[in-house]
Write a structure and sequence with these properties.
Blueprint lengths: L7 H10 L14 E5 L12 E5 H8 L15 H18 L6 E10 L2 E11 L4 E8 L5 H15 L4 E4 L22 H8 L3 H4 E7 L5 E8 L2 E11 L3 E6 L4 E4 L6 H16 L3 E6 L6 E3 L13
The structure holds zinc ion.
The site of zinc ion (ZN) has 8 residues, from strand 2 and helix 2.
């Protein structure tokens, strides 16, 4: 069959669907080529055309030229098809009014010296779509922030950008794909992406009437998205257990143990910013509601 070129409209529509990025490496601002996935140059239906940067296109056609393991990529037709579909789906989601994707910013260095930043584009379930590293060879942290915000906006106007940690104290620039990336877990990601969180969420604290322990539940849209328990261990520790944060904190001599417990609960409330807080005690199946967090006196027993 004779070679058929995609029409200008097809090209425009495909580039738009790929947010003007290569579907393999996600680079933008480079030359793009529309590659025929099945190798048939006359088959110009959209599902057969992948947006590739010049380098990945060349890599596909001349894999033997890319022997170094950093550059050698598996770009067989069936793999290219996965890249294309995955990335185009991500872009569709990213352009929604309430996208279920987040831009997570990992910062590396020290409070007074940030040497690199990594933009991690993730889905709400924590899976990483792609990463983009910025470091001192290319401008200053202020420049990177501008670049990151611009990049995120180009992919979707309503994507939230979240800085996940205070600087991770490492001295060398993390190399893009081999370094550890922090993503937001699904619970927090649900909170961040929910536009009606301030109306549609609540946190309940269930106070055990018989033992020094309490349970915390965060609900959004009538679904439980986070649970934790806090109890007093022997050896005088306060122990918080959850799928996310876990810690054991030595009980201090002052203030009262109940005050120390309250401040841990307050921290969680501050983090979750629920629309309502409910306190309950007694029979877990038919709890009796309380006006505020009143803990039984037995919390004060010290060993
Ligand atoms: Zn590429």
């Amino acid at each position: 069959m004779a070679r058929k070129n995609p029409t200008p409209n097809q090209r425009k529509s495909l580039l738009l669907k790929n947010a003007y990025r290569c579907c393999v490496c996600k680079q933008s601002g480079v030359g793009f080529e529309l590659h025929h996935i099945d190798g048939d140059n006359s088959n110009t239906i959209e599902s057969n055309l992948a947006v590739l940067c010049v380098s990945d296109h060349d890599n596909h056609h001349r894999p033997n030229r890319y022997t170094h393991k950093i550059f050698c990529k598996d770009l067989r037709p069936e793999v290219l098809e996965i890249y294309k579909n995955r990335w185009e789906n991500f872009v569709v989601e990213a352009k929604k009014e309430k996208p279920q994707v987040i831009a997570t910013l990992n910062v590396f260095g020290f409070d007074d010296f940030i040497h690199s930043m990594k933009l991690v584009m993730q889905r709400i379930d924590g899976t990483i779509e792609y990463e983009q590293l910025h470091h001192l060879h290319f401008g200053t942290p202020e420049d990177w922030i501008d670049d990151v915000l611009q990049e995120v906006q180009n992919i979707g106007n309503n994507i939230k950008v979240v800085v996940v940690n205070s600087p991770l104290e490492v001295e060398i620039c993390p190399e893009s794909k081999r370094s550890y990336s922090q993503t937001l877990d699904e619970c927090m990601a649900t909170k961040i992406t929910a536009s009606d969180w301030g109306d549609n969420s609540y946190l309940s604290v269930f106070i055990n009437a018989e033992q020094p322990s309490l349970g915390l539940i965060v609900c959004y849209d009538n679904e439980v998205i986070f649970t934790a328990t806090l109890h007093k261990c022997k050896d005088d520790f306060l122990h918080l257990e959850s799928e996310g944060p876990n810690f054991r904190e030595k009980i201090k001599s002052k203030p009262s143990i109940r005050t120390q417990v309250s401040s841990i609960v307050k921290k969680l409330v501050h983090e979750w910013e629920p629309a309502f807080i409910l306190y309950g005690t007694g029979d877990p199946d038919a709890p009796q509601t309380l006006e505020n967090m009143t803990l039984p006196k037995f919390w004060e027993n010290r060993n």
